[in-house]
Amino acid sequence: MTELDGTDAAALLLTYNEAVDWINGLIPFGIRPGLERIESLMSMLGNPHQRLKFIHVAGTNGKGSTCAFLTSVLLQAGYDVGTFTSPYITKFTNRFQYNGEDIPEGILLKLSNRLRPLVREMASTPLGSPTMFEVSTALALLYYAEECYPDVVVWETGLGGRMDVTNIVAPVVSVITNIGMDHTDVLGDTIEQIAGEKAGIIKPGVPVVTCATQPEAVKVIQEKAQQLQSSVYLAGDQFSYHRLDSNENGQSFHFTGPFRDLDVRIRMQGSHQCDNAAAALMVLELLRQYMAFMLDDNDIALGLENAFWAGRFEKVVDEPRIVLDGAHNPEGAESLAKSIIDVYPHNKLILMMGMLANKHHEAYLQHILPLVDTLILTEPDFRRKMDAAELLQIVERVRPAIAKQELEIIVEPEWAKALDLLKSRTEAEDLGVVSGTLYLIADVRAALLHQTDSEKGW
């Protein structure tokens, strides 16, 4: 029996698809907060994460967009940038990017074969098998430390912060975009508890930037930072912004920071994206002021303006007008409702939505349902989907108090048929919106853009 890199040749994964299937095959191990397994994996691999610089991004909403703003500016300024995000919209490789490009399938295969025997070895110990997200995180760290060597890695948390696998790293700046009610089954059911989990990414002496607004959340973050002697840069305090204009092509805002003022423009829509861009800009100002990053004004302006993040208030079709937005919690729904009113004048709003179970759907509907003329309830193609009929019961419960009297409700469990209904019901002066879990957004986006290689998943 031959061996290759210490791996039994007979057990090698032979193709990219086999590697992805192996990693996704770990999904049944679930979400298991804690750092023991990732620390053990990193130790086996020589702690590659200790050779990298990270910007660690946590928060309830806006993490991906903030990562996109940071990545775009740093690339524009000539830096080599790794970007680790989740979930992905099109392909599994989306989550591991270097200079805006997905990890090559061959390298993902090679690194999977390197990790697989270590995962099997750990599975036989009291620690148990690493989860899918733990293996993905380890793969990302190997990719950046041993294959492409970025100057900095923009590093998004998976769930929470304190016990999230990504918290193994020591960042140069930490970011907490905002605090909202999501993943309450894991993170706690109060703003204070959730803020405590997110604040777990704060490290001793490492500055933290946040757009959290609730007094109780701000207090938790500030107290944690004070314990660790970390400086806090709080939106509305150390930095602020106000919008200057907004239209279908983008929006601009004036940023006031501790070091200077700037006027910038972004193409991403919705006032919440100004929050995300302002947080990213504050991070960039810290890198520039204290960490010797060379970031000139033109690169900052171009990088912010050109930033893009799929499936976040994204208009994908003009005729009929269809916007996709991965809002799946109350705060996301509130931002979506504001953005619809702000950006797209319309006659009727036709909303197609599909959700996962165990989310705050009543609170979600409180924000968006008052705007809707036709509601199409469907189901994402995902194992933890909520049945459309069950979602209908929630809608009917809240409808009398908040919905338009003439609201039309259609239940179509098959998302592709629901999409056909959305397209046929959305007339020239109307606006079609698809919202809910990103698992639904991924499929709908691939269908509307005729992408044949879409994989979608966590």
From TrEMBL:
Superkingdom of the organism of origin: Bacteria
GO molecular function, one term: tetrahydrofolylpolyglutamate synthase activity
Domain (Mur ligase C-terminal): residue spans on this chain: 311-437
Catalysed reaction equations from the record: (6S)-5,6,7,8-tetrahydrofolyl-(gamma-L-Glu)(n) + L-glutamate + ATP = (6S)-5,6,7,8-tetrahydrofolyl-(gamma-L-Glu)(n+1) + ADP + phosphate + H(+)
InterPro entries, A to Z: Folylpolyglutamate_synth, Folylpolyglutamate_synth_CS, Mur-like_cat_sf, Mur_ligase_C, Mur_ligase_C_dom_sf, Mur_ligase_cen
Enzyme nomenclature, EC number: 6.3.2.17
Enzyme class: ligase
Record-linked Pfam families: Mur_ligase_C, Mur_ligase_M
Domain Mur ligase central: 57-283
Keywords of this entry: ATP-binding, Ligase, Magnesium, Metal-binding, Nucleotide-binding
PANTHER family listed in its UniProt record: DIHYDROFOLATE SYNTHETASE-RELATED, FOLYLPOLYGLUTAMATE SYNTHASE-RELATED
Family under the similarity heading: Belongs to the folylpolyglutamate synthase family.
Classification via NCBIfam families: folC
Protein name according to UniProt: tetrahydrofolate synthase
The species this protein was found in: Paenibacillus xylanexedens
